[in-house]
Amino acid sequence: MMAKRPLRLCLAAALGFIPLAVKMPYIVQAWKHSPLDRPGRVFGILFLLAVAVATPKVLERIDGWDLSALLALLPASAIVLAGMAKDIHAVAIVGAIIFAWAVLWLALGWRSAYCIAPAFAILMLMTTSLRYWLGYFSGPLHLNGLVIMVVVAVAASAWLTVNLTRETTPSRELFCFSVAICAVLLAVAVHELAGMHVTSPPFLPDFSHMNFDNYLGRELPITEADRQFYGDNDIEKYFFAGDTSAIHVLAVHCGDDVHQIHPPSHCLRTSGGNILDEKSQHISVNSNNLAVNEIVAVQNTQQILLWVWYSNDEQSTASFLNFRRLWTPSRPWVAFQLLTDLDDGLEAARQRLHDLLIAASKAP
């Protein structure tokens, strides 16, 4: 019986990690191209080290098949399928990690599964874009997502140490119920904080007229950096100059691959910018209430103001997550960005962008 335990562990791992293996090419590409995702490699290595340290205890605590693992296995399968159906990589990766742990629980029993659970908590930190979203949802604290990830890794390591030094296995039902409650509360918080329930009337201004009130515009060439960020989507770039100020306009027509559209604050951080503030603002354009995502940042020592929204011919939203939820390839979307400097203050910059939007909305 003892000789079969390592074989059972290896078979369970081989089967359980199939969904995550399917996502690994994407994860590796994210490590290669996204500086914000590269620390994920470190957490992957920490996971392997944690597994190596925990394996003797995991083998020692094997109880055999445990069908109560379906409490985690079925929801994990649903999460993986939902992530793949909606083409949201992070969701599919999270589901794949839970699936791998649940298969170990099924094959080895609850005692072994709980013993190794902290290692899988560390593996969760390998999820792509996690660093960005942790920083985004830290709100007014403006914490670096990596700091939060390190804190979680330290806490998980301490949890693993406790599991290895003494066996204190909680009720599997209580554990799963607690995790489910936390997941529901997290989903509700994300839904509310990200403005995923807020939409505005459609707003698709045409900036190609070049001349709006006191601003004279010209079209800008598309650069290699633009292609790196936005792939083969149709891109419009304009520069509008006034007497004492300027506004940059970017309109990206979202094609069939929504993964080529990224949150602007993510792009700013990737290129070395520092986000000072990010929130939703509501502005009035021709009696319509338009929600925009307002970002105050520092880029190349220059303070800037950025307004962002996403629109199709039916509705618009300031939330990137809401845009991802609503996006379908059958209905074209456009991502708009307006950028100006803050040399004359925040209110003056806001008024400048507001005036341009009103002028553009009245263009024939």
Q: Care to describe what's here?
A:
By secondary structure, this protein is α+β, with helices and mostly antiparallel strands. The protein folds into two domains: 4-167, no CATH class; 211-361, 3-Layer(aba) Sandwich (Protein Transport Mog1p, Chain A). Helix content is 52%, strand content 19%. The chain is built from 13 helices and nine strands. It has helices at residues 4-16, 18-33, 40-60, 70-85, 89-108, 110-124, 130-136, 145-165, 172-193, 224-230, 264-270, 320-326, 346-361; strands at 211-212, 215-219, 234-241, 246-254, 274-285, 288-299, 302-311, 316-317, 333-341. Strands 1, 2, 3, 4, 5, 6, 7, 8 and 9 form a nine-stranded antiparallel β-sheet that branches. A hairpin with a 4-residue loop joins strand 3 and strand 4 (246-254).
